[in-house]
Structure formats: C-alpha cells, structure tokens
Specification:
six-stranded parallel β-sheet; 321 residues
C-alpha cells in the first residue's frame, strides 16, 4: 500500500515505517511541522519516501494516517479533494493522553463514523472521551537496540524533552530531591541550563541532547533509568531503557503501572520510595543488572517490533478492505 503519514513523532514513526509498505512523508522546503519529510537522526528504510504536496494530487494513496486535527483538511487539499475517511480510508492515531479537564476531555474525532481512532495505550483510550467513534489500541513497538546495559557509571539516566517548560508534567520539580539519591544525566531537547534552573550543582544534574545513534549507548552506561513523569502518554524512552536492559525507577502513574512488571524495577507514587530504590541500584550493581534483564524480557515480549507491525497490519487490512 501507499500510506500517507506525516513525520510527527520520530521515535514512533521509526517503528511504523519498518513495515512492508511505501510510506509517503510530506516534505516542504522549510521542513517545518507540516512537511518534515524523513527523519535525519533516525535510521529509516528506503520505503519511507519524501513527497512534495503538489505530487500528492496525482499519487495513488491507499490509506491516510492522521495524527493531528488539522491534517484532515490538509490531506484533502493536497490530495486534490479526496477526503480522508470518505474517499480514502483513514485512521486517526492519538499519541497523547488528554490534557487539562481530563475526565471531561472529548477527543476531536469523537462521533466520527468514517475512521478508526487508534490509541497507543489502554490508559489513553480510557481517559479520552471518544464518543461513539470506533476505537482500537495498538501498543508501542520498539526497534530493538540490543542488550547494551553495562551500568558502569553510578548515575541515573533521565530522558525528557523541554523539562523546564513542561515542569510538573514531566516531574522536573522532583529532580532536586532525587538527585540527592543518585546524580542525574538528563538527555533530551532543550535541557541546557537545567541544573541552574533547579539550583543544583553541575555534577548532580548534567544535561545534553544526543542524536539517537548515541543516546542508547549513553543511557546503557548509567546504572538505572529514572522516569519521574507525572502525566504523559507512555514514554518511548522508558520502553527503550527496558529494551537496553536497564532497571527502571518510575512514578506509578499513567500507563507505566501496566508497562513495568514486578521485578523489572520500582514504581511508586512516593518520591522517597523512588529515591531509596535509586540508592539501592546505585550501590548494588548485581541487583540492578538482574532487574534490567527482567525489564528487557518483558519489553521484548510486550513491545517487540514484530507484534507491533502485526497489529497494525491486521487493522490496516480491515480498514482498507
């Protein structure tokens, strides 16, 4: 099939484009949000093809994957009037948990009968008001980076983008107390100046933004993975850490409760419990390695790439039939 999909979330799309189809990725000269084209720091196959909007009018498209509310109108215009869901089969993929007035948050696709609304976690589907729109859950899949864990550095890895702006959502306010238990290495976009913002000495909170090709190796050298996020969809970095063989110390919130099984780490809503778990792993490398090995087995079983692609294949075949 020819599948039209925007490059919105590079990590998720990296797994999706490993399938057997041709993936048409809109590209604009400025490579802005509406036309990023192929990812430049992730490894994508040649079947992920950049296409200019003016080319789409005459291009056969078998399926449109929508990820943002405005993409339906954009696709209709670029496809020469073909309407996603009416003239071309469509799926709306929701990456995020609802925001603000969470119990009452109505999904933009609620009440639509011309597409399937796919959530990436069961938590997300539960908390969104989907109305009568048909929904499905296809959990994340990860391109396995391999069991790289060494844990040789007595530090905790944290992966988060924009921790200053996102603040309490990502648990940034919890980092000072947690840094007393284990020095932190925070990886992600716009993390510069984080230690100064939190009033921490530079050695207790180091921050850097690494390309994907270097990130996994850097994470795996740290003794544990710390996930202090209060409210989000299930972070792919958490699943990547588990694939790497890292023990997990995480807030027991959103889908993390279901994603991290007993023995693969420590989950709690109490920061003091997380701090004690970090200390334990820091000073007991064998316990950390054993928990990380269990985390990897669980991640491969539930979030493996083959299962992910098979789930998508079944749904796409049904939608396009």
């Amino acid at each position: 099939m020819n599948i039209l999909i925007w490059h919105v979330r590079a990590s998720w799309t990296t797994a999706f484009v490993q399938g057997p189809h041709t993936y048409l990725l809109p590209v604009l000269p400025d490579r802005g949000p509406e036309g990023r084209g192929r990812a430049r720091t992730f490894s994508w196959p040649s079947s992920a093809v950049e296409i200019a909007p003016e080319q789409l009018r005459d291009t056969p498209v078998d399926l449109v994957i929508l990820q943002r509310p405005h993409e339906a109108a954009l696709a209709e215009r670029w496809l020469g009037g073909r309407r996603p869901g009416r003239d071309v089969p469509a799926i709306y993929l929701e990456h995020d948990a609802p925001d603000r007035n969470v119990p009452e948050t109505r999904h933009p696709c609620a009440e639509r009968d011309d597409l399937v609304l796919v959530h990436v976690t069961h938590f997300n589907r539960l908390f969104w008001d989907n109305g009568r729109t048909r929904t499905a859950v296809i959990e994340h899949g990860i391109v396995d980076p391999g069991h790289q864990y060494t844990g040789r550095l007595e530090r905790a890895a944290v992966v988060v983008n924009e921790p200053v702006r996102r603040g309490r959502y990502t648990g940034t306010d919890l980092l000072p107390a947690l840094s007393e238990a284990a020095p932190l290495d925070v990886f992600g976009m716009r993390t510069e100046g984080l230690a100064g913002h939190l009033g921490l000495p530079p050695d207790r909170c180091r921050a850097q933004d690494l390309p994907q090709s270097q990130l996994h190796t850097a994470m795996a050298q740290r003794r544990l993975y710390l996930h202090p996020v209060r409210w989000t969809s299930l972070g792919l970095s958490l699943l990547e850490a588990m694939h790497l063989g890292m023990p997990v110390v995480a807030l027991a919130t959103t889908e993390a409760v279901d994603a991290v099984p007993p023995g693969a780490g420590v989950l709690s809503t109490r920061p003091d419990v997380l701090a004690q778990a970090a200390r334990t792993y820091l000073h007991d490398p064998q316990a950390a390695a054993e928990a990380g090995a269990r985390a990897r087995r669980a991640a491969l079983d539930r979030y493996g790439l083959k299962r992910f692609l098979n789930d998508w294949e079944r749904l796409m075949e049904e939608v396009t039939r």
